[in-house]
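Q: Got a minute? One more chain.
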Amino acid sequence: MIAYVLESTFILGLFYSLFFLLKNENSFRFNRFFILGSLISAIILPFISLPFPGAGAVSPATVMLEELVITAEAPLKAEGTRWPYYWLALYGVITLIMGSHLLVQLFHLRRLKKRNKYEQKTHYALVALKGTQTHFSFFNTIFINIAAVDDDQDLQRIVRHEEVHVRQKHSADVLMLELVKVFCWFNPFVWLFKPLMMYNHEFLADQRVVLQGEDKATYLDQIVKQSLTNYNVAIVNNFNYSFTKKRVIMMTKQKSKWLSMVKIATILPLAAGIAFLFSCTENNLETQTDKSVEAQHLSETQEETVVVATKTKEDNAETQKEVFMVVEDMPEFEGGEPGDFRYFIAKNLAYPQKAREESIEGKVFIQFVVGADGIVKNAEVVRSAHPLLDAEAIRVVNLSPAWTPGKQKGKNVDVQFTFPINFKLQ
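A: Always. Here it is, folded:
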């Protein structure tokens, strides 16, 4: 989960940075699809793992479980290893609140249409609003505050503007972004993309209305007159989205197709490179297995090199048995998640007394195999901290009860893990 959050945020942050090359250009259609593509990429790229071109043989590999910290004063303080569950609960609560808020807004719009008179046109329904609400559209419905319209010509200009939103289905973009916010509320760049999207929708509508023959000066005057009102529903396209000054600037800006093409030609390979880079990583184990297991690279010069792979061979004198790194159904500890295994270790491991007296601390990496029968075996130290700490770590790992074995193509198989245990005196 943490790996996904970090990677998704970083990807969207990179795309957000790239967008600033385009934000002042008139390439509104391209901008629209760049924004949508950025959101979609941030969601799906962390789930994709492709081999690097030419990557044939790989180093010996293992699945890296999340580090466990053991302190001398209170070993069971490592009960904090259950923190993923608390974060998951917090995520669920906030997601539920966000989702409920979105549903309330949708319900409010539906009720608003029902409570006001509306006229069905060929491509949209025209709803006459009451009160001080401004004009806006949502999918195939245009809401107009008749009292705020000076004459029929003003009304026609407003309707033409909102009709562009309807025909180009801008509400689908906004609804998609709102859904992304519900499930990816932790990503700050999702929130930052919202005004960029709304800006661009207004630019597209303004551009289209002027191309249809509307007098630019009269239309600009209309925008300014409507700038004092706003409608506080986050998922609608307003006639004015509080961007009056920016809209006026963009409408009067001299177009430079050459400059826009150069920027687009620069951004496209950069965006493709970002997508390729993040899909061709070999440390996406958590998202591939949907278990609470994290994969990470550990590079060493004279020690063991630990990287993520699909499988390796375990050589011994009598036979050669296949040991997998990633399988279709990963092994599960008796509690249901690898996190419970960490809790088991924390509860049973004791900081060696002699190590305390001699102020010895360090991180031990234990490698072990969950066999096809679910039994933990072949526990060994692959990175040592101190013999006293190594021995205690091996002792406790060997105490592990049976796991639910991993499966590949319906068959129980051996799966290898590496588990870092960090002994800290304070």
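A: The chain is about 45% helix and 15% strand.
Q: Perfect, thanks.
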